[in-house]
Automatic annotation (TrEMBL):
Top-level taxon in the UniProt lineage: Eukaryota
Membrane topology annotation: Multi-pass membrane protein
Gene Ontology MF term list: transmembrane transporter activity
Pfam family, one: MFS_1
Species: Eutypa lata (strain UCR-EL1) (Grapevine dieback disease fungus)
Subcellular location: Membrane
Keywords recorded for this protein, A-Z: Membrane, Transmembrane, Transmembrane helix
Cellular component terms (Gene Ontology): plasma membrane
Name used for this protein in its record: Putative mfs multidrug protein
Membrane-spanning residues: 84-108, 120-140, 146-170, 236-255, 275-295, 315-334, 346-369, 381-399, 405-428
InterPro entries from the UniProt entry: MFS, MFS_trans_sf
């Protein structure tokens, strides 16, 4: 059952890529509808704060530019097939990391018996991996803004692979726990790096790369502390991180709630995990809805407005998910005494609501912070993982003590409290972004 998280997170990245790709050709249309990369200050007011039209006389000798807007080496000009394979490869790394977080869970009882410890001790193998997810992004995300994506991404992939070996060959519990933590820490760097890669691959913002020497002091003060400074001063990042953390935690709690709810019906342990198929169908439906939204409403909105796309235009799917999730949780929790199909249908809408919120929320964060997207996603993943790492330890106790109905009601109430967030930012998002020191700026 835990493997659903792997599917969920991989589907999220695939959904994000589909969203970026589907609107890439409309992100900055010219008057006649053609692709336009000859930007002026007016065009780019919301896309990085570039002060004037880029030309040879404006470019510093320390800045490396593409060889014109049609440079084939520019990622945005890659052929669709190359973009597709790039997206598949990077999404596969995300799949490996998220799959690794949960794949050990079914083996906790077996390994606990093998090493003579309690199952609770072996559950730390899941918790420590998730804690590791909170370590990597705070380092790899900012460093990718300094050195580019290739080196940090290569390190995170190699570290992820290398620290699987101690776990596979372990002869004691500490080796397993340490190996799991380090594998999660290295692998988690991909979370923050890949989101920035997708933005640069599919978005049309024109930018160069600084080649001036980077001092260690600059790395520490400007980049490594940047995620913390952003989280301390950016209300958008704080609110969306809180909401998406609740969504992420709800999924982990569902891993405990769903089997418990169906075992109370007399189902076997294996059969009680089958309703997760309904959650997966809801997740896939959400990805389809978001892609359809991007190809219809969002594309039409961009075409009708000859200015830069606004991040708030990403929020309608999130608003839909915010409306769906609270009643779906209540429906699931309080339908334990009726036919089992009722809870299965509720599970579908839980997956649908969770994924709609998550895809739109991640996309909004990336759109708001643009060149600072890696740092924003880094601190987001850190906070989300720190909180979620405790969920496997108390989820079972929570549902056994409160019961499926009341525990689900608690989650529904929390979801209801956060539900106005999309509407709040739809109305006031532009004003709130104007207060930001990091939104739409070139740092």
């Amino acid at each position: 059952m835990e493997d659903v998280s792997s599917f969920w997170l991989c589907a999220t990245l695939a959904g994000d890529a589909a969203l970026f790709n589907s609107v890439a050709s409309t992100a900055a249309p010219s008057v006649n509808g053609d692709y336009n990369t000859d930007y002026t200050h007016t065009d780019l007011e919301g896309l990085g704060g570039i002060e004037k039209k880029l030309s040879e006389k404006d470019v510093s000798p320390d800045v490396v530019e593409w060889d014109g807007p049609a440079d084939p080496e520019c990622p945005r000009n890659w052929k669709p097939v190359r973009k597709f394979f790039f997206t598949v490869i990077t999404s596969s790394v995300i799949l490996a990391v998220s799959f690794g977080s949960s794949v050990f869970a079914p083996a906790t009882a077996v390994t606990a018996a093998q090493f003579g410890v309690s199952p609770i001790v072996m559950q730390l193998s899941v918790t420590l991996w998730i804690l590791g997810l909170a370590v990597g992004p705070i380092l790899f995300g900012p460093l990718s803004e300094v050195f580019g994506h290739l080196i940090p991404f290569s390190v995170t992939v190699l570290g992820l692979a290398a620290f699987q070996l101690p776990v596979a060959l372990a002869e004691n519990v500490p080796t397993i726990l340490i190996g799991r933590f380090l594998a999660g820490a290295f692998g988690s760097g991909s979370y923050s790096i890949v989101s920035g890669q997708y933005y640069e691959l599919y978005d049309l913002t024109l930018r160069g790369s600084e080649e001036t020497p980077v001092e260690l002091e600059d790395i520490v003060h400007k980049y490594l502390t940047k995620p913390v400074r952003m989280f301390a001063t950016e209300p958008i990042l704080v609110i969306f991180t809180a909401y998406l953390t609740l969504v992420y935690g709800t999924l982990y709690l569902a891993f405990q709630a769903f089997p418990l709810a169906y075992r109370q019906r007399g189902w076997s342990a294996t059969a009680s995990e089958l309703p997760f198929v309904a959650v997966m169908l809801g997740i896939m439906s959400a990805c389809g809805i978001c892609s359809l939204f991007a190809l219809t409403w969002y594309k039409a909105r961009v075409s009708q407005n000859k200015t830069a796309p606004q991040p708030e235009w990403r929020l309608p799917p999130m608003a839909l998910g915010a409306v769906i999730l609270p009643p779906a949780l209540l429906w699931f929790g309080w339908s334990g005494n009726v036919h089992w199909i009722s809870q299965v249908i509720a599970s579908y809408f839980i997956g649908l609501g969770l994924q709609l919120i998550f895809i739109a929320g991640i996309t909004y964060i990336v759109d708001v912070y643009r060149e600072s997207a890696n740092s924003a996603m880094s601190i987001h993943v850190v906070v989300r993982s720190l909180i979620a790492s405790s969920f496997p330890l108390f989820a079972t106790e929570m549902y056994e003590q409160l019961g499926v109905a009341w525990a689900s009601s608690v989650l529904a109430l929390l979801s209801l409290i956060m539900a106005p967030a999309p509407l709040l930012f739809w109305v006031y998002g532009s004003r709130i972004r104007s207060w930001s020191h990091f939104s739409s700026t070139l740092d």
